[in-house]
Here is the input.
Amino acid sequence: MLIAHIADLHVSGDGRPVHDLVDTDAATRAVVAAVAALDPQPDVVLVTGDLTHAGEPGAAERARALLAPLRPPVFVCPGNHDRRGQLRTAFGRRADDADDDWMCYVVEEFPVRLIALDSVVDDPFSAALPPAQIAWLAARLAEAPDRPTAIFLHHPPFDTGISWLDEMRIAVGRDELGALFARHRNVRAVLCGHLHQPMRGTWFGTPVFAGPSVMNRVAFTGRLPDGSPTVEVVAPPGFVLHRVGASDWQSDICFLNGHVEVWAPSLPDPWADS
Ligand SMILES: [Fe+2]
Here is the structure.
């Protein structure tokens, strides 16, 4: 089974570049084109949150439209920049996504059972897996204890060592999540986003993969004479291709451009023709 894993599109509501600097529409088109050109095609595409930059009206619909060229089925979970109601409207609300307070569901039709979790809370600088959601997950895992299973959610459960990211860690429920992993060794992997950079780790022995962001990862580096900021692209858009076999799991991090580019607003947008 092939899983294309993309994260952190940060699509705006009107197509304007984020912060007037980062063209997330162009980055999303470029990643979608790269995934669409894969041969063989992935069986499924998982989007691990932050499809929108600020949950503006129309942003989730625009994200769905930008993802529409993908031929495999696309499944999404919310990130801290999203509004789950807008994602449900844009992508459809699944029958088992039954609780208004969190967006969780199970995809049964693939060799690997896929479970969407929702780590988003009202505060965009925090995250949680409340007890009711942990109980829901426990019940789902108990239904199929022998099936290979992958869980996808926005926030990775592990600490990153990056203080400002770890301040936004899952504050409630991550040990309980780990206790479930310890009981259910058929959970083969956890796929996340949020970090805007790839990072691998484990949580209670279960592999966790945080993907790179679709949005160019940038650093503000200074000011031009007119006062506008200069930006360095520290990582181009990327995605992960997970190849899942009966006894192995291989993850390839695919950046669209392997080198660092220095980019200022006065320079041509390198993704404009993508
Ligand atoms: Fe993000």
